[in-house]
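Example record for the data management plan.
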Amino acid sequence: MNRRRFLATSLAAGTATSATSMAAVAQEKKTMKIVGISCSPRKGKTTAAALNICLEAAKAVDPGVTTELIELAGRNIGVFDPADPKATQGGFADLIPVLSDPGVAGIIVGTPVYFGNMTSLCKAFLDHCMAFRQQKFALGNKVAGIVAVGAARNGGQELAIQSVHAALLCQEMIIIGDGQPTAHFGATLVNDGKDSISGDTFGTDTARNLGRRVAQVALQLAGIQK
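Corresponding structural encoding:
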């Protein structure tokens, strides 16, 4: 091999190696987090279980997806007072930097159904989200999905979901449903009365579909997947 050919071959090999390295680095940077927020006053029960199904499905979409479950049970999140918001933040305050982090691309809110709607804890959480509007809409363009767990198949899950949708639309979030093939308002599950959702095949399917859909849309918005 003459000197010119040797240099050309070496340069091509070096360029290919550099491109491969850059692609690897770029791939490493293409990570995002999806956070589940359980608004049940009972820690580790069916709402948390439903969110875990969503988050596992989200992680399965792409190796760059990471997840975190946050349970509001036990947190001192009082009634929001717009006249003195910081005084009433309590256990909400440390959630502000977590959820406003640009690395959080999706948020899935889960609530039990009480009298056909969300829990008071969920409403308090959503009211305190006024803090994000005041931070130049820090939740804007993040993907949002909703999970509702009721005591019966038609126990108010869809109404609860739509109520949470309304609040998150005011945050300029991108609201999605549970995706195909169920493709409705979100994940709707039934507690069998023994603190289990495992027998609700339809409901757990909607939870998986929701988690998958949240991840897919978040990845598409980030230009990572088509």
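Summary line stored alongside the record: The chain has two domains: 1-30, 32-221.
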